[in-house]
Amino acid sequence: MESSLAWSLPTGWAEPRKAAAKSAGQALTDAGLSELDEPALVAACRSGRPGAFDVIVERHRRAVYQLCYRYVGNHDDASDLAQDVFLRAYRGLKNFRGGSSLATWLYRIGVNVCLNRVSAKAPQTEPIDEHQFVDVHAEPASEKMLKDERGARVRAAIAQLPPKQRSALILRMYHDMSHQEIADTLGSSVGAVKANFFHALGNLKKLLGSE
Amino acid sequence: MRHLTADELVDLVEGVALESDVPHLATCATCRQQLAELRATMAMASDARVPEPSPLFWDHLSSRVREAVAAEGAAHASWWRRLASWPGVMAPMSVGAAAILVSAIVLKTMSMPSNRPEVTSPVASSAQATTSSELSGTSRVELLNDSMPTDDPSLMLVAELTDALGWDDGGDGGEAQAGSAEHAVTHLSGDELSELERLLKEELRVKGA
Q: Considering only CA atoms, which of A75, A54, A92, A70 is closest in space to residue A151?
């Protein structure tokens, strides 16, 4: 049994979905499609209904991009990887059986794509504020800078974790997935996921403490 | 003393298990410290937000995906179209398909036993039987068993003469053309024939035949 996490989770699914539905890209899609639930949307996509896959992208693009960013640590690679994840999803949608949620299935694709990338290319974390949208009304600049600096340190440390530990940490902490969902995504057991999560936190502490 | 396992510590950190449910924590400073460090690390990690890209980025990402998907679909559909539009491939394929179809029809027709008695010239038959390799075994046996003698010179002559005749030529065979003496004689009425007979007998009598 999984309870809600003790720490505050970053923006996950609900908020981006509402925001995405109102985006300019929505004008290109059939208005009725955005009202469909997940199975109906997948069925519409499989039947070749125009705009159906656009709605899937709009619903999940933020989460997929953030997942990719967690792995590679920079905007350019993350946007390339996010595009790749959706393209692979489009190719494989005919094989999607609905055994898991579409989000979990997309995460599985995303994790594989990202692990393939980071194993072939060392992550290049970008400097603070590069490609970032600065909302000047949100919080004082000094406080934001401190947060950004801490965040950059943590992301750089996460990027140094072994792949399985990194995946367990990212999916558990930043994408609110249960251990069972992570196990399904990674093709491992719940026990292994918990162990990887535990060791990921221990190694993260060492990495952050050594700086 | 057994310390808490990774699984138990994760459950405590995530709030799945309560500290009050784990009596060992009250007596083990090592496990308490480990739990505190895990909580501190998680709190620090939770602050590591992904930088928010420009608001325009999301539509840009959707456009990129849309273009990639469209290119994927176009590439998938166009390989066959490209093949079909390549004359170097499709023209020979069309000719080959047509040749195979015609050959199949011819072979099928030739292999079917015919119920109609064939009117075939012996010369042509023998020529066919000896030269045509496409004939089926059945056809060849029929030709060889033909009851017409193939060594009769007169028949061979007739066969040669009639071989080039068409159906209409054959139908007209033996008929005199209109306006000729033969046509007039063969088309006389009964009275005319009687009168002709009388005239011929009278002529013969005059000559003393």
A: A70
